[in-house]
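Can't attach files on this board, so I'm pasting raw text. These are the components:
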Amino acid sequence: MKELVRRVSVIFSFLLFSGGTSLFAESGDVDISGTLFHHILNGRSVDLFPGVPAVTLPLGISVHQAMLFVSVVLILLLFLRAARNKSMKPKGVRSIAEIMILFVRDDIVYPVMGKERGEKWLSFFISLFVFLLTVNLIGLIPAFKTATGNINVTTAMAVIVFFLTFAVGFKELGVPGFFKNMYPEGVAFPIGIFVVLLEFIGLFTKSIVLSLRLFANMFAGHLAILSFLVLIFVISPFFSLVSVPFAVFTYVLEVLVALLQAFVFTLLSCIFISMASTPEGE
Amino acid sequence: MELFEIEPGLAIWTWLSFGLLFFILWKFLLPSLLKSIKDREKTIAGAVDNAEEIQKRLDEIKKEESKIIDKARAQADKILGDTRKEADVLKSRLIAKAEEEAEAIVSRAKLKAAEEREVLLQALQEELADFVCEASEKVTGVSFTSEKDRRMVKEMARTL
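---
Top answer:
Structure tokens for the assembled complex are below.
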């Protein structure tokens, strides 16, 4: 076991280091910020290995689009395989799928929405969590990119939650009821209107924050890893002795952040949707 | 590409990807998974309920068992007590009977001894009377064979 961990660490460090060298493989003229953003931001080509020319994606699709597609395919394959396994004792892929399902059900949806209402929403939140988690994690594979490190993707996801908040609120409480729900009981008329206004603005800001939080966390994590590697070329090759361990540590931290951010996004979405459709005081 | 570059195509692609994923999961894959999880939870809950039921029944049986044991013990104690009492009664009755019988035997023996004594005494008196008569006859030469003489001698022997 120890040997395996050692080997994985060596390979991992090599990959990280080689990823770092690929940053500057293109030319001797170093444009640090440009190179960093090139490896994080969206583009049309993928840098697979150092020294190997970048592969341009077909049909004009961007890397982040490809990452989203790959994530969806991976999730579908995982759940397809899990659904085929009918055993009472979950094993392998099935247990991974069940862990995610039970996590979303027991730690997010049921505590927030309750069992009866939560059951109707379970599929949506499982899909949301699994989608975000996979997209977050897939970017940690060398040569892959994190699509959630793109503001357009996170905003698109936040927009879904935003419209669902309104749609569910209107459906459950009616349009007047939805706005009446924002008016706090026992508050004088002018102040109450002000509160309704704030609550209404809050609906937008919540979604914006939801989007920005996920984007910033994923983007910053990758930027931190690459920044550590860039230091090797900026300071000295010997700095890799410090940089690589730090990069590895940040990488491990990123796995946690990826999980945490998928959880936070799903939990907050669940809370927003639940709050919008629950009458005041309940 | 810029950091905050607006890419409507990517946003639409995100919606499409997520929409497709949600649709397939919701319509085809999750129902069977959720159902099997629910079934398993039901089976587990059923097994737990069953186990609890068995435990409850076991406790009841244990209670009943201890009750039965207590009852049996009490009954045994009662039977033992009753038996002891009966044995005591029987014992005292037997002792009394034995004592009575012994007394009767003793008194019978006494009576018989007295009778024997009387018979012996009578035999002795007669023997003595015969002896006296014979001795007097030899000494005096007078015959004391009549019934009257013998009775007189007997009376004399009795007064000795």
